[in-house]
Amino acid sequence: MKQSENVKQALEGLWPDVRVELQVIKTTGDKILDVPLAKVGGKGLFVKEIEDALLSRTVDLAVHSMKDVPAELPDGLVIGAVPLREDPRDVLIAREGKSLLELPVGARVGTSSLRRAAQVSRIRPDLEIQMLRGNLDTRLRKVREGMYDAIVLAAAGLHRMGWQDAITAYLEPEDFLPAIGQGAIGIEIRRDDEELRGLLAPVHHPDSAVAVQAERSLLKELQGGCQVPIGGHAEVMGETVELAGLVSSVDGREVFRRSRKAPREQAEALGRDLAREILAAGGKRILDEIYRMEIK
């Protein structure tokens, strides 16, 4: 809702004759709060119902967290704009202000993300990972009340809400890769809506879009979703984009992480090539094992 409100204000500020009406649509991911996302299964848990509304012309645009958007969009829909990306990093929120390395042995760490759980376990295999679902204020309340010793969240949501004071430590991508597209917003529209595409042009941020394109190309080639521990982070530096990606076992004991650079106009190929390198290094075996476990 905060992201959508920001887009509404931006568009109405740019175009005084335009009025934007927010329509709230609850998705499957919003409704199922007592099961880890990895066990719900499927892709598009947070976008399908919204995309259905776009295709049926009930709404004209959709505001998504790009980390929730599947690598492939439905026919007839495109990402019309990617605004300036927020901080893509994960953060630790600890009840006693401790860093990840300072948490006591056996401390309870809350997350619903297999990617976060695997990377926490790789760094601190002695910690106890527990499921954490719910919106931001619910998660923060649970750690304050002592249900968890610490939780891992995305920095972007806390920044947008103005709740940075809750952050104990930022988890740097060099050690802890975020989700594909984390911190980025995607504004999805119908492919044939040229008028709306024009209205969105001033809010589009090319560097953010290139970084997200590289990450999503990595995800697409890995054929991953929220059911597997996959991370990725791209950074655009002038005419060059650098991409890091990983595939991890669920317990964090095996991690296949690689990085590459390429000219920005080759962002899509960069993601595809890096994914193939990770798969060849051992990532394919890990993913195959995880998918076999799901089938059973």
What would the keywords be for this entry?
296 residues, alpha+beta, D-Maltodextrin-Binding Protein, domain 2, Double Stranded RNA Binding Domain, 3 domains, five-stranded mixed β-sheet, 10 helices, 11 strands, 21% strand, globular
Corresponding CATH architecture of the largest domain: 3-Layer(aba) Sandwich
CA radius of gyration: 19 Å
Report the CATH superfamily of the largest domain. Periplasmic binding protein-like II
Count of β-strands = 11
- The tally of structural domains comes to 3
Shape type: globular
**Estimated structural class:** alpha+beta
Strand content: 15-25%
Extract low-pLDDT stretches.
Answer: 31-38
Major sheet description: 5 strands, mixed
3D structure, described in words:
The protein is α+β, with helices and mostly antiparallel strands and 296 residues long. It folds into 3 domains: 1-85 and 182-204, D-Maltodextrin-Binding Protein, domain 2 (3-Layer(aba) Sandwich); 90-171, Periplasmic binding protein-like II (D-Maltodextrin-Binding Protein, domain 2); 206-291, Double Stranded RNA Binding Domain, CATH 3.30.160. The chain is built from 10 helices and 11 strands. The strands form 3 sheets. A 5-stranded mixed β-sheet has the order 5-4-6-3-7, sandwiched between helices. A 3-stranded antiparallel β-sheet has the order 1-8-2, with helices on both faces. Strands 9-10-11 form a 3-stranded antiparallel β-sheet. It is globular. It starts with a helix and ends with a helix.
Q: What would you say about this model in short?
A:
The chain is α+β, with helices and mostly antiparallel strands and 296 residues long.
